[in-house]
TrEMBL record:
It comes from the Bacteria. The chain crosses the membrane at residues 12-38, 50-72. This is DUF3311 domain-containing protein. Keywords: Membrane, Transmembrane, Transmembrane helix. The keyword Translocase does not apply.
Length: 85
C-alpha cells in the first residue's frame, strides 16, 4: 500500500526530435510553396526549373528521411539505455 504510483513517461520534446520533425516537414513545405518554383528558368540540361526542382526534392526527401530515421533510432536507443540505469 505504501508503493508510489508509477509515473508514465509520455512524449518528450528534445532538440533531436525537433530536428527529426524539421527533416520530415521540409519537403512538404518546399512542395506546397508552389510560387517559389513555378517558373521555367533556370533550365538544367534543357529541363525547365519547375520539373527539375521537384525531382531534386525526391532525392532530398530521401536523404532527409534517412537522417530522421537514423536520429530516431539513436534517440530510442539512448532512452532505453537511460531508463535501464
Amino acid at each position: 500500500m505504501s508503493q508510489a504510483p508509477e509515473v508514465s513517461r509520455g512524449p518528450v520534446v528534445t532538440p533531436v526530435r525537433v530536428v527529426i520533425g524539421l527533416c520530415l516537414v521540409a519537403p512538404f513545405v518546399a512542395m506546397l510553396w508552389v510560387g517559389s518554383y513555378a517558373k521555367t528558368d533556370p533550365a538544367f540540361i534543357g529541363i525547365p526549373f519547375f520539373y527539375w526542382y521537384q525531382m531534386a526534392w525526391v532525392l532530398i526527401s530521401t536523404v532527409l528521411t534517412v537522417i530522421a530515421y537514423q536520429l530516431w533510432q539513436r534517440d530510442q536507443r539512448a532512452r532505453r539505455e537511460g531508463g535501464a540505469k
